[in-house]
Amino acid sequence: MALIVQKFGGTSVGSPERIEAVADKVLRYRAQGHQLVVVVSAMSGETDRLIGLAKAITDRPPPRELDVLLSTGEQVTIALLVMALEKRGCPARSYTGSQVHILTDSAHNKARIQEIDDARVRADLDAGRVVVVAGFQGVDAEGNITTLGRGGSDTTAVALAAALKADECQIFTDVDGVYTTDPRVVPEARRLERITFEEMLEMASLGSKVLQIRSVEFAGKYNVPLRVLSSFEEGEGTLITYEDEQMENALISGIAFNRDEAKITVLGVPDQPGIAHRLLGAVADANIEVDMIIQNIAPDDQTTDFTFTVHRNDYDRALELVRRVAGEMGAREVSGDNRIVKISLVGVGMRSHAGIASTMFEALAREGINIRMISTSEIKISVVVDEKYLELGVRALHDAFHLDQAPQSA
Amino acid sequence: MALIVQKFGGTSVGSPERIEAVADKVLRYRAQGHQLVVVVSAMSGETDRLIGLAKAITDRPPPRELDVLLSTGEQVTIALLVMALEKRGCPARSYTGSQVHILTDSAHNKARIQEIDDARVRADLDAGRVVVVAGFQGVDAEGNITTLGRGGSDTTAVALAAALKADECQIFTDVDGVYTTDPRVVPEARRLERITFEEMLEMASLGSKVLQIRSVEFAGKYNVPLRVLSSFEEGEGTLITYEDEQMENALISGIAFNRDEAKITVLGVPDQPGIAHRLLGAVADANIEVDMIIQNIAPDDQTTDFTFTVHRNDYDRALELVRRVAGEMGAREVSGDNRIVKISLVGVGMRSHAGIASTMFEALAREGINIRMISTSEIKISVVVDEKYLELGVRALHDAFHLDQAPQSA
Predict the structure, then answer these.
(1) Which CATH superfamily is domain B3-173 in?
(2) Interface test with A, best of B49, B68, B145 (most A CBs within 10 A)
(3) Which of A96, A250, A339, B364 is the residue whose CA sits 20 to 30 A from A346?
(4) Which fold has domain A245-410?
(5) Which of B17, B20, B54 is closest, CB to CB, to A80?
(6) What ipTM did this prediction achieve?
(7) Model's pTM, two decimal places?
């Protein structure tokens, strides 16, 4: 018998019929003898409806009141799910964030969980009940309702799992797991049985948006085994844990990519301290997020070349800004390109194996793909290539690293 | 400067535009220097929408979860009203029943208020804020969300006014006060400036459903002056208080009537102890509510006649039941009539003035209206007449007691 925290998002609970399907799924796990805590989001569309009501009154709703308003969304879902469970003869009880005492700071609309009082949940579990908790919401020390911001229901589930020392936290989504890469690009893409927290963070931030980054960080920090599964199909999904022996055989876990990149290059910048700060500070001040940053020493040793990438939507604004700052600094030239993409190999295995990079570059060269930028970290290698090479590049790499096959024992 | 509790029902807050109109109205009272606590219901249609969601899952939702679900309705309204107030530069704060600690018993769907902790509300009022409270809901000693049942928002307002020792509790509705009778029947019907709690109870229970009976009882018990006003028009409305000198001049305050009555008569019942219990017990066991009950001694002194009225919807069921029981008791005959109405004169003045009844009966006789039943209490006289005489009878009485004119000093 295990204690499992399950989380179902807005699409999974988007109608009374779907809520009944969730109840059926929960009961299948219960029939296996598990204790279950279920975290749910607002029914899909409900949050938008509530925001629409607020916007009809004011463009700038007070954050405290927006939380009072939005938190009703999950409250509706918890009641309906318990109704569906009890109709099936399963004792169950619903709790709002405030009732189960998910204590947060007072940062309305983006609060952070500080503490969870698990006494009430434990008492219900011991009494044989399924406990249904509203995701996304909490309460501050003064009793004000707070919300956790985007993806908050995942965070609620992980935090509850940590507080309860649950055996597993299962996140039900509209995909059946984490894949070696996007199956729409590579039909041979394979579902991973396991992946490490670090790899999942790289996969998520690089565009495989299965889970919210914050909840993965949180799960890693508290060592909560996280499993991604499908709400709509049966299956084992993908388990996200810390590295173990079983994983060491895989060099590469997956290939992430990002279509929304644009790069800006400043050539011939005087090579002085503070240059990077002056260039990127201006960009950051304009609230533009920067992804990759690469600096090369130019041949003359007096000046340097500087390249960074931004989201494609920010490209025009960033380019104009950088042109102005670069002019003030006496840079030789500013150029940009918003038809690029980033492809990344991700895998904890690459830490201990040489030759990954050369295999990667060789595979791309064989297809005639010119690499425009390279950046590496301990568990990933990213390249920037022309937009038109995205699919070709991802497929070539998937093939070169045999990702369609499960890793063999070494 | 007075402390006023105001209550706005579902129609008054039925859309973002109407919520803005409520904010404007609240601010007009605030501009007069009053401290304000505002109780609101769910937006009209919202409760039905939520019940629809529950019914899509189960015909018998668990009462605890129904309360969790339905209480979101008022929570949406409080947030939106505070948004509208703050947009107008008025500091305000919303509270759910749980947050402001409206402690109730644990009778879900029909809970009763036990205690209100007014500390938080007082602190906000002292800080110059308008306090907006969700009506209809509370919290039990274990922290479970409860609802007060139908008309619960009125009860919340009165209970808050009692706890805060407010100067007045104002109930905003879609009528501009309590009338001497229904203006649709008597165009000369006049708005009453004042009425006593006892009279209001008789008027309400007899069909002038302006206020929920429970909230009037509650206001009377805690001596909270209650005022009924229009959400949509300006005006003083009707003040409901205890009897004072100003009122003593009026013999009759108003005429209530009820179109939904049906009567059942059992003739020739053996006149023995326990007869009434046996007849009415069967009716009560079938969950049929009985209104008037009249028993006459028959001429032979051996048997009695027994008549009672029920709601017209229950007539067929009640008649069948009574036929069976009366047969077992050896009654001579059972008859019934579901085309009757009840007309009632209501007024605390009739306690100290003779002749009201005879004026009443004379006025009806003059119009050729046959009285089928009579029943009296300290402050009302009710007659049952044929359905077709309803309008004629009410108009004749309104005229006979000069209700179109404000009472003169005696």
Answers:
(1) Acetylglutamate kinase-like (3.40.1160.10)
(2) B68
(3) A339
(4) VC0802-like (3.30.2130)
(5) B54
(6) 0.79
(7) 0.81
